[in-house]
Amino acid sequence: MTPPVLDFDSCYRAVSARDSRFDGRFYTAVKTTGIYCRPICPARTPSSRNVRFYRHAAAAEAAGFRPCKRCRPELSPGDPGWDLRGDLVGRALRLIDDGAADDTGVAGLARRLHVTERHLHRLFVAELGVGPHAVARTKRLLLAKQLLTETSLPITDVAFAAGFGSVRQFNATMRETYGFTPSELRATAGKYVRDPGVAGPVSLRLRLHRRDPYDVEGVFSFLAARAVPGLETADGTSYRRAVPGGTITLTPQDGHIALDVAVADTVDTRQLNRVVARCRRLLDLDAEPDAIAQALRPTSLGPLVEARPGLRVPGAFDGFELAVRAVVGQQISVAGARTLLGRIVARAAVPGGLFPPADALLDADLTGLGLTNRRVETLKELSARVADGHLDLDGGQDPSEAVAELLSVRGIGPWTASYIALRALRDPDAWPAGDLVLVKRMAALGIPQDHVERWRPWRAYAALHLWSSS
Questions:
Q1: Residues tagged active-site
Q2: DSSP structure class, residue 300
Q3: Per-residue pLDDT tens for 273-296?
Q4: Which domains are delineated in the chain?
Q5: Which phi-psi region, left, alpha or beta, contains residue 372 (left: φ > 0; alpha: ψ -120 to 50)?
Q6: Which listed residue, of 26, 180, 358, 460, carries a Cα 20 to 30 Å from 435's Cα?
Q7: Which residues, other chains included, contact 322 with Cβ-Cβ below 8 Å and sequence gap of 6+?
């Protein structure tokens, strides 16, 4: 099977115009140089007879091309087409971003998706031209390239942070694929490297690129209003939270988000690929604002779309955590939910101030925190289903199956399930039906309820526009 052919003329026009709307959607490989680039590469546009176009960086690398050192494909925002898809390939790509293939291999990835490894490989080749192993390897290499270029992490730590099993494997793979060693790339970056024998905290900064326009104020204000005491601190200009082994801070910059990572020891950088992927989802960095605006602007939401260009749907750093937030927040104020969630974190948090995972919350004593008995029962049943694998809220389960499983939990109704789908499952068309704030905002703006159907397939973004309109 061969992957769908990209429209050559459309791609070449985008490259000639350096159109940022296509950044991350395809890559341009130049046969005369052996290099592949982003559509926005500032280098001179190559002749059309010398270029090929690939849907994924892994396909370009499998064809023998190396990433451009000038436009740096590792900085591309994700393809919004894959980010929004709930089918098997879309979910598999999100899990690869999350480090699932590094943790358990492609066989483990296939098991989590409940398909055979052979079937998964066949689907990847049909869609992308390469298998999941090649995609995972390219993700590791591009993250390593970014770490070597932007940080002072020792090469040994870069290898493990990017998901390689050994330094020898890292060196061999980079030389074979890119034609240079990690040491050679680090030398050209001119980064000061900390002595690996020096113990102590490790701090590094990475750039998370986004598509503009990006509603910084809307995203960070949303997160600040819902920051859980003891877990997060946030305001309109930054967001900080605990992660395994340390903390992260996200700060808006011109054209990107700065991700600062502070971990207790270099061994904790092995979670870095997962941290990067989850931060991108939390901030909805891979959305396509122009497409969303074009669909919603002609509707009754037009004035709101004009007032908040680049609005995003804040996601979740952890799917189970978001589900607990949604259950606790049922029929109470945002401030009240924050208070209760802070008490849960104080009572049940694991070392490092992390939000309790499903198995920890299942065993925790939640009495005396201000939760009703029914709410406690719902949280326990939710925790049990996540802990035993019946419910996967981090990308492995078909969204419709996950919503059906959520609705079978006593105490979770359509509003809660839709809210979880909107933020944790990244469903762009999720609509929290019955939300009182949405009903009041639509009434105040004179928008009939039947207009909700006109906002498909972007109803999640319509909900954010209405929630943000006061």
A1: 37, 435
A2: T
A3: 899 999 999 999 999 999 999 999
A4: 8-77 (3.40.10.10), 81-189 (1.10.10.60), 202-266 (3.30.310.20), 319-427 (1.10.340.30)
A5: beta
A6: 358
A7: 316, 393, 420, 423, 424
